[in-house]
Amino acid sequence: MNEDQIKGKAKDIGGKIQEGVGKAIGSSEQQAKGLNKQVEGKVQEKVGDAKDIVGKGNR
């Protein structure tokens, strides 16, 4: 795993936690922020996946 994949996964997990807390306390704002973090994390993971693929092609 490269740095983007790790950071992306961490954002995704953090977003899931934030969404869950938002649901627990009834905060739609926190839920939305959590969902947004999840999307950011998934995008960053995909960037890391692409970097891995490109990097392996250059070897």
UniProtKB/TrEMBL annotation:
Note the InterPro entries from the entry.
CsbD, YjbJ_sf
Q: Where is region (Disordered) located?
A: 21-40
Give start-end ranges for the coiled-coil region(s). Answer: none
Please, which domain of life does this record's source organism belong to?
Bacteria
Pfam families registered for this protein in UniProt: CsbD (PF05532)
Q: Which residues form the CsbD-like domain?
A: 4-53
Family per record = Belongs to the UPF0337 (CsbD) family.
Protein name, please? CsbD family protein
Q: Which organism is it from?
A: Massilia aerilata
